[in-house]
Design goal:
By secondary structure, the chain is an all-alpha fold. The protein contains 21 helices and four strands. Strands 1-2 form a two-stranded antiparallel sheet. A two-stranded antiparallel ribbon has the order 3-4. It is found in: Golgi apparatus lumen.
Length: 378
C-alpha cells in the first residue's frame, strides 16, 4: 500500500471535516412545510456531491478559503504546476496558465457579455502576430509568461511569510523558530511551545501533527543548501514553501510522489500505478465509484505528456521534467494539448469561435452565445 504524502497529512491536520446531511437537518427543521423539505433535499444533494469528490479535486476558488489558515505550511497546491504535492493532477492548471493573474470577471455569476469581451482581449494578447488565430508557439510563449507571473507572486508571498516566522529579523529562520510558528497556527500557545522547545521538553502534540512535522522537517533539510546548518535564508525558505523554484526541491517532490504511488518498489511509475487512486485520497466508496474522470485524465496525462519516451514507464527524470513549470519543451507540449481540446476544424490553431465555445476549459466558466457574439467582441 502506498504511504500517505505530506499534502494529505496537512489536509487531515488543518482542514475542517464536511458537515453531514444529518447535521444539517436540525437547522432546517423549524422552517416546516414543503419549502423546508426542498431546502433539506437540496442540501443533501450538494453535500453528497461535495463528499464524493477526491480530496484534491476542489477548485482554486474553494482552496482559497483555506489559504489563510494554511499559509505557514508549504501549500499542497502549487499554482501553475501540473501535479499537486501529493500526486493529484492540478485541475485548474489550464486556467492558471491561460489567465495568469487575470482571473477576475469569469466567476459563475459574472455578466456573460463582459466575460466574453475579457476573454477576447486575452486572445488578442496571445495572438502575437495578430492573424486572429493562436499557434502552438504563441500559446507556449503565453504559458511561460503566465507561469513567470505565478513565480513572482510566490516570491512576494514567501517574503511576507518569511518575515512572520523570522521574529528576530536576522534574515535566517531556524527549524525551531518555524516549528513554534507552525504549532501556534494550529492552536497551541506560542510562548508555551517556545519554552518547551528551548528546554527540550515533550511538546504533547497529537500523532497526526507530529507526523506532519516530521515530513516538514524532511522538506526543511532538503531546502537547506550546503553547507547545511538547519537555518533557512529567504531564498531557501522560498524553496521550502515553493519547490517549483528549485531544481533540487523539484527532485525531492518527484521522489515523494513516486514513493506515494509506487506499489512494487522499483522507484518508477507504471500506468496502473499512476492511474490508481492513492490510499486515503477518496473520502468514501461512492466517490471512488463515480470518479470515472480520474482514470481518463490521468491515463491521458501519463501517455501523452509525462512518459516522454513512450515506453510505458515514468522515471524520476521524466517526472521532474514534467513538473518543472519553466521547462520550455513541456510548455510547448501543453500548448499543443490545449489547442487540441478546442481545435474543431483541425487546423492546429485556436480561433476566436473555438476559444469562446470551449471557454469553460480556459476560464472555468461557460460563456453562452459564443458563435453569435464573437464578431461583437473581437
Amino acid at each position: 500500500m502506498p504511504s500517505v504524502g505530506p499534502g494529505l497529512l496537512a489536509a487531515r491536520a488543518g482542514r475542517p471535516a464536511a458537515q453531514t446531511p444529518a447535521a444539517m437537518a436540525p437547522r432546517l427543521a423549524p422552517l416546516g412545510g414543503l419549502a423546508a423539505r426542498c431546502l433539506w433535499l437540496l442540501g443533501v444533494a450538494l453535500l453528497m456531491d461535495a463528499s464524493a469528490r477526491p480530496a484534491n479535486h476542489s477548485s482554486a476558488r474553494e482552496r482559497a478559503g483555506h489559504r489563510e489558515e494554511e499559509e505557514i505550511l508549504p501549500p499542497d497546491h502549487l499554482t501553475g504546476v501540473k501535479l499537486e504535492m501529493d500526486g493529484h493532477l492540478n485541475k485548474d492548471f489550464h486556467q492558471e496558465v491561460f489567465l495568469g493573474k487575470d482571473t477576475g470577471g469569469f466567476e459563475e455569476d459574472a455578466e456573460p457579455r463582459r466575460s466574453r469581451r475579457k476573454l477576447m482581449v486575452i486572445f488578442s494578447k496571445v495572438d502575437l502576430n495578430t492573424d486572429r488565430r493562436i499557434s502552438a508557439k504563441e500559446m507556449q510563449r503565453w504559458i511561460m509568461e503566465k507561469t513567470a507571473e505565478h513565480f513572482q507572486q510566490a516570491v512576494a508571498e514567501s517574503k511576507m511569510h518569511f518575515s512572520a516566522v523570522d521574529p528576530d529579523g536576522d534574515g535566517r529562520v531556524s527549524w525551531d523558530e518555524y516549528r513554534v510558528k507552525f504549532l501556534a497556527s494550529k492552536g497551541h500557545d506560542e510562548r508555551e511551545i517556545a519554552d518547551k522547545i528551548k528546554n527540550k521538553w515533550d511538546l504533547n502534540i497529537d500523532e497526526e501533527t507530529q507526523e506532519v512535522l516530521e515530513n516538514l522537517k524532511d522538506r526543511w533539510y532538503q531546502a537547506d543548501s550546503p553547507p547545511p546548518d538547519l537555518l533557512l535564508t529567504e531564498k531557501e525558505f522560498l524553496s521550502f514553501l515553493h519547490p517549483e523554484h528549485s531544481r533540487g526541491m523539484l527532485q525531492f517532490m518527484a521522489k515523494e510522489i513516486i514513493r506515494d504511488l509506487d506499489q512494487d518498489g522499483d522507484k518508477r511509475l507504471s500506468l496502473p500505478e499512476f492511474i490508481s487512486l492513492p490510499a486515503g485520497t477518496v473520502e468514501n466508496q461512492q466517490g471512488q465509484d463515480i470518479d470515472d474522470g480520474w482514470v481518463r485524465d490521468r491515463r491521458r496525462e501519463f501517455e501523452e505528456l509525462i512518459d516522454a519516451d513512450h515506453d510505458g514507464i515514468v522515471t524520476m527524470a521524466e517526472l521532474e521534467d514534467y513538473m518543472d513549470p519553466m521547462n520550455e519543451f513541456s510548455a510547448l507540449n501543453e500548448a499543443k494539448q490545449m489547442i487540441a481540446v478546442a481545435d474543431e476544424n483541425q487546423n492546429h490553431y485556436l480561433e476566436p469561435e473555438e476559444v469562446l465555445k470551449y471557454s469553460e476549459f480556459f476560464t472555468g466558466s461557460k460563456l453562452v452565445d459564443y458563435a453569435r457574439s464573437v464578431h461583437e467582441e473581437f
